[in-house]
Amino acid sequence: QLQVVESGGGLVQPGDSLRLSCATSGYSLNYYTIGWFRQAPGKEREGVSCMDMRDYRSYQADSVKGRFTIYRDDVRSTVYLQMNSLKVEDTAAYYCAAEPAGRFITPQAMCDHQDDFDSWGQGTQVIVSS
Q1: What is the Cα–Cα distance from 102 to 88, expressed in whole angstroms?
Q2: Residues near 41 by beta carbon (within 8 Å), at least 6 away in sequence
Q3: What torsion, rounded to 10 degrees, do the Cα atoms 103, 73, 22, 51 define?
C-alpha cells in the first residue's frame, strides 16, 4: 500500500499562493491515483483535485479550477498541489490520499468516490485570512 504524508500548510493572506506536498513511499507512484481533499469546519470533506498517475489525467473542482494545479515530481515521488489566488473560503484541512489506479474511468469519478481511497495522510491546515 502506498503511504502518503502531506506538508506545506500555513497561514496566508487572500491572494497569496501556497504549495502543498504529498510525499509517497512504499510502491511506485505510476500505479496509483492521488487525490487532494479538504474539509472546512462544519462542512463535509470534498474532492479538490485528483490525478491518475498512469496518464496524468486530472480533475479540479469548479471551486478551484484555474487557481489550483496538481502535478508530480517523479524524482521525489511527490505530488504537489499548487494553490494560487487563495481565498478565505479555501481555509480547510487538506488531505492527500491514494488508491490503486483503474477503479474509476475519469479523474472526476475518482474524486467523487473518496471513500475508495485506501491510504490517507494526517492532513495539513491551510488558513487564508487577512
Answers
A1: 35
A2: 92
A3: -30
Phi, psi (degrees; rounded to nearest 5) at 105: -75, -40
User: In Å, what is the CA distance from 104 to each residue of 44, 111, 114?
Assistant: 22, 10, 11
Half-sphere exposure of 92 (CA within 13 A, CB side): 21
What is the rounded distance in angstroms from the CA atom of residue 12 to the CA atom of residue 113? Answer: 30
Contacts of 62 (CB under 8 A, 6+ apart): none
Per residue in 102-116, pLDDT tens?
A: 888 898 999 999 999
What dihedral angle (degrees, nearest 10) is formed by the CA atoms of 11, 85, 71, 52? 100
Helix/strand/coil percent split, the chain, to 5:
10, 50, 40
| Neighbour count for residue 15 (Cβ, 10 Å) | 11
Calculate the alpha carbon distances from 18 to 53, 75, 79, 84, 123 in Å: 22, 21, 14, 7, 15
In the block, which residue shows the cell 507512484? 29
Q: What confidence tens digit (pLDDT) does each residue in 34-53 have?
A: 999 999 999 999 999 999 99
